[in-house]
Structures are given as C-alpha cells and as structure tokens.
Amino acid sequence: MDAIMIKESIDLWAIIGLSLLSVVLLMLSAMASGSEVAFFSLTRSEIEDFEARNDATARRVIDLLSNRDRLLATILVVNNMVNICLVIIATQLVDEIFIFTGVWEFVFNTIVITFLLLLFGEIMPKVFSQTRPVKMAAFFAAPLKFLRWLVYPLAFILIRTSSRVSRLATKSAEISIEELADAVDLAETGSEEEQKMLSGIVSFGQTEVVEIMHSRVDITGLEFEADYDEVRRVIVETGYSRIPVYGDDLDDVRGVLYVKDLLPHIAKGNDFRWQELLRKPYFVPEHMMIDDLLKEFQKKKTHIAIVVDEYGATQGLVSLEDILEEVVGEITDESDNDEDKLYEKIGERTYIFDAKIHIGEFVRAIGYDEDAFQDVEGHAETLAGLMMELKRDLPRRGDELSSHGVKFFIATMDGRRVDKIKVEVDG
What we know:
- The protein is α+β, with helices and mostly antiparallel strands.
- It has helices at residues 12-40, 44-52, 56-65, 68-97, 104-131, 133-150, 152-186, 192-204, 209-212, 228-238, 259-262, 290-300, 320-328, 359-365, 383-391; strands at residues 4-6, 98-100, 214-215, 222-223, 242-246, 253-258, 283-285, 304-308, 314-319, 343-345, 350-354, 400-403, 406-414, 417-425.
- The strands form 4 sheets. Strands 10-11-14-13-12 form a 5-stranded antiparallel β-sheet, covered by helices on one side.
- It is elongated, with a radius of gyration of 34 Å.
C-alpha cells in the first residue's frame, strides 16, 4: 500500500489561499530572523553613520536601537508567533493535498516542514543579513517599527518577566556581598585589627596584582655576571631571602636566587658558580587577581613572582607576604624597618606617604572610596603618577596640588623621582 497518496477531490481555492498565507508567513519569519542579525551586528561606526544621516530610514534605525530590549522582544515575539502559525498552516495545506498512512504524516509534517522553515525562515536570512547588516537594517526598519507598535503588549510582558527572572537569578550573589558587608559593619564594634581584616577579606577577590606589587624601581636584583663576593654583599645589605637575577636589565629576568640554597656554599671562593643554583622565575600579568595568584603560589609551591605587562616588560615583584598582608595587615619581621613603611599618620587628617604607594592602597588609607580619583588618575597606578596627572607636568619639590578634598604637598625628591608626599584630608 502506498504510504503517501494525492487526494482525488482537492479544494483548489483552499490550497491557493493556504499557499499564499504560508508564503507570507515564511517571509515574515525570514524578516524577523534577518532583522535580528542585521540590527545587532551593526558596529559603533555604522551606527554613527546612521546618526549622521538626516533621512527617515536612518531615524527609524536609530529609534529602534535606542531601546534594544524592546527591539529584541519585538523580534522574538513576531518570530515565534509567525513560526507557530506557519507550522499550523503548512500542516493544513499538506492535509488538503495528501493522504498519509503509518508514520509518514509525522515524518512529513515534522521533518520536512521544519527543515524548510529552518532553511528559508532562519538560516538563509541570517546568513544574508550577516554580510549586509547596514542595508538589511535600513530595509527592515519601517516594518519593524510597525510590528513594534503592534506587539507592544506582549513585548512589554516579555521584558518585565525577563527582568524579574534576571533579578532573581542574581539575588543569591547580592546576598553574599551583603552578608560580607554586614560582617564588616558588625566588626566596627570590635577592634581596629578585626575591622581591617574583614575589610581585606571583602576586597580580596577584587584586588589586582598591580595594586600590591613592589614596583620595578624598588626591586633589588643581581646581575647574572656578578661575582660571588658581590652576591654575598647584596644579601647581607638587603636581608632578602629571594632575589631576582637579570641579564641585560630587569626585563631579562633569568631566575630567582634563594639564599637558603647558598648556605651549603657560603665559604666558597669568589669563583663559585652561584648561577647554577638559580630557580626558574614565575611570571604573572599585572592585572591578575590576587586570589588567583594565591592559588597558583600554592599549586607551584613558590613564594615570589615577577609581574610583567602586556609587552613582557617587568613592572614589579609580588610575594606571598604581600598577598597575606591584604587580609591580615602589615606583617613585620626582624628584617623590616621604619623606612619600609609606605605611609605614616602624623595628625588626625594628615599623612606622609611614600610616592610609590599604589593609588588603591592610598585611598583606603585615607578612608576614601576605591574609585574616588578615577576621573583624574588617568593611567597612573601610584601616588607619584597621580601627582603627574594632576599637574600635567613633572612634579617638583614644594609643589602643592589639590583634588577631591585632598591637598598634596611634594615633600622630598630623589633626583627627578618624587619620594615623599604630605597629604591633608579635609575634615
């Protein structure tokens, strides 16, 4: 028995009407699919070109793009309604012409119609619009404006519902942040040390390596060709347990010397090849988060990393101690001295800052918000850099600058480098 047969009695007018309606619906589906790709593929420069034009089509495009959520909701509502109607009409058209037996009706209506819908209503218009987004956006602008008005009630419901779902989806993350903030508030009744520690925990996952590193100018390194006497002299003078070793300059870090590795060889002569004891340096990008760096330190069982920029140039050095100090505060040991402090409070609202302090640490020290100087700091990362941005010139000793209720006085210079800065915060 034949699986598919043509009916003996066919209603020609019904077939013509259903066919025309199917074609119209398929064109609407293609328009909705193509317009989605066309409008949301426009680049910033292409949108600016539309804004520069003064014709009705360009104004329609800009008007549609002014509310992208409503535009997308309109396209989705139209596309889904048209596709549903198209499947129903196409199925009815097939039933007017053919008689099926067995599973062939399911196969034809599901697979064949779906394939045609995807090919001509989705894939082809999207591919075509992807290659000509400007022309297609202009072509679809007028009908889309009409459809936006026509389906506004449904689009409005869709926008409000999606916004509500989005807020519910992010509610748990907001609660977590609020709980941490509450913990900090509760700690205000406790000691100052507890308050600082909880504040450090809250900001720990939002702090970048560049904010806590020792800048390049403060790195004590050893030349690769230095003799053993020079190595011992630097170790004694600095008291550091790990020292970077470089070739031509600090952009050519070849390894890290661990002082403990030298102990068995401490009595050897000046010709001792200490370079053979170097350990492989660990390089990290300057914008790496410190919580990620802590995990890497634990994984690699190392305590020190060389911080580099996008070009591979050495920007600074960061250690495990620097990370821990972000949570527990300053860690002082027998090798530290007062000269290592980055700031000193000399009055109720007056400080002396080391110019190399990072801007993030500076604003926390004076009790300002993290982004307080964001509008004036430019590309500066240290307090000295902020002075250059404020003055728009090289700072000199005695310069007085002010910004955001803070007065800066250049107290001392080290050659052309700013050394100490006196800061007065308006009460």
